[in-house]
Amino acid sequence: MTRSVTTNKTLPQADGDFYAIGTSLSEEDQALLRRVRGFLEVEVAPIISEYRIREELPHQLIPKLVALVVWSQQNMTDYKYPRHIEFRTELPMTATGKELKSELRS
Questions:
Q1: To the nearest whole number, what is the mean pLDDT of the chain?
Q2: Three-state SS letters, the chain
Q3: Where does the pLDDT of residue 2 fall: very low under 50, low under 70, confident under 90, or very high at 90 and above?
Q4: What's the predicted TM-score (pTM) here?
Q5: How far apart are CA 68 and CA 34, in angstroms?
Q6: What is the rounded CA–CA span in Å between residue 19 and residue 55?
Q7: pLDDT for res 87
Q8: Which of 12, 72, 100, 103 is an S-S bond match for 81, by CB 3.0 to 4.6 Å?
Q9: How does pLDDT run across 41-77, given as a tens digit for each residue?
Q10: What does the pLDDT read at residue 9?
């Protein structure tokens, strides 16, 4: 006897939250998530491919990133906002080509 299993489930919208983790976040965290996604859609997405091809950092985004961090410091609990942001030209790597995460954390 052969059985066919079919479902009528639809795939979730491709919004970067496949497992719907955003629905379990606090209102504070959801506000930050909306703000970051809006920033990425409006400021980063339209220009990032061009800068990636040229292997350059879009320096005009730095003040806007700082403003995003300042907003998170003013609107979020202490342990949730970034304490340090660092721009690097390359990541530290092992001999096999893996990122040295311990060096990134220091």
A1: 81
A2: CCCCCCCCCCCCCCCCCCCCHHHHCCHHHHHHHHHHHHHHHHHHCCCHHHHHHHCCCCHHHHHHHHHHHHHHHHHCCHHHCCCCCCCCCCCCECCCCCECHHHHHC
A3: low
A4: 0.59
A5: 12
A6: 32
A7: 76
A8: 72
A9: 899 989 988 998 898 889 999 899 888 888 888 888 8
A10: 62
As given in the structure block, the two tokens for residue 53 are 């091809």
Structure-block tokens of residue 72: 């998170």
Give tens-digit pLDDT for 26-49.
888 888 888 888 888 899 989 988
Residues 81 and 60: their CA atoms lie apart, in Å, by 22
Q: Which amino acid is at 44?
A: V
Positive or negative torsion for Cα 31, 74, 104, 54: positive
Residue with tokens 């893996």: 98
Q: What is the dihedral of CA 15, 21, 24, 30, to 10 degrees?
A: -40
Both tokens of 59, joined, read 């320096």
